[in-house]
């Protein structure tokens, strides 16, 4: 089989998986810091962050879609002028089946809002590990909706992955964001139960939305970037709803200043890293699948911890090494295709 598109001689499939792992670790730390580093009275609005995220992602996807449509179509018909391209893209975006994207769009908006609730109420590491339950919800929905067949070793691999992540967590549970010698979590009110419920629902919506997006993408010829534009368009309405609520609660203030109150550098950094992650996620779903995406992000836990060792002088412990090895083993087990010949050879049937 072909390796798919390449960048600098590396298959885009692997490049996007590795980049996603790094992006995931960065996002958890930046987002957590952006939430807990200020008292609640000076917090920025997550609803604004989700809305800006969708608008940026949609605009970037729109430009890419427009640029791609310039390439001659398979039937050799060139797309011509800018107006011609815009018209053709308009037809693609508002196609008959565009409504299908409304389902993952709503689910992703719910997930993205809940992620803020979770990250504000749990420690960074606790959040990161409980968010890995996505791996199991995603596998479940892939089997149900995509009729994906997993072999028994692959089911075991998923189980090992969950265990490995939990073991690494025992270690990283000690990682806290500290300023002036005081853990920021102690100065910020957190509600662990609220955080945990948010994370559980976010895992369910994440699994369902991802698999649904994969199903729509892989069951049609429509370009990924057109699908992304459709996704962002359908996200706007649910993303705007909490923003209106925010504005209605204080109509004296101008709406722009109400939306962007306390929206500082860390909030923008969070949104930009999220936009990058959303685009990467789309690539990963196209060139790999949602289950492999889960493995990539579980490696991000290992990356986060390594970064903490380098940056904050943490000690590597046996627990951490054990957990990481289980994660790596699970990844290998999931991707290892037992060949018939292995089996035949083991039984002495091969020549
Ligand atoms: O939890 P998970 O890793 O599935 O999160 C996916 C993230 O990627 C969500 O924030 C979602 O908004 C984003 N996404 C996207 N475009 C896609 C698929 C997912 O922006 N086509």
From TrEMBL:
Keyword annotations from UniProtKB, A to Z: Membrane, Transmembrane, Transmembrane helix
GO molecular function: pyrimidine nucleotide-sugar transmembrane transporter activity
Full protein: residues contained: 37 to 387 of 440
Membrane-crossing segments per the record: 155-175, 195-213, 225-246, 266-285, 292-310, 316-334
Gene Ontology terms: cellular component: Golgi membrane
Subcellular location: Membrane
Species the sequence originates in: Mycena albidolilacea
Transmembrane helix found in the keyword field: yes
Membrane topology: Multi-pass membrane protein
Entry annotated with the keyword Transferase: no
Domain of life: Eukaryota
Annotated protein name in UniProt: Nucleotide-sugar transporter-domain-containing protein
Signal peptide: none
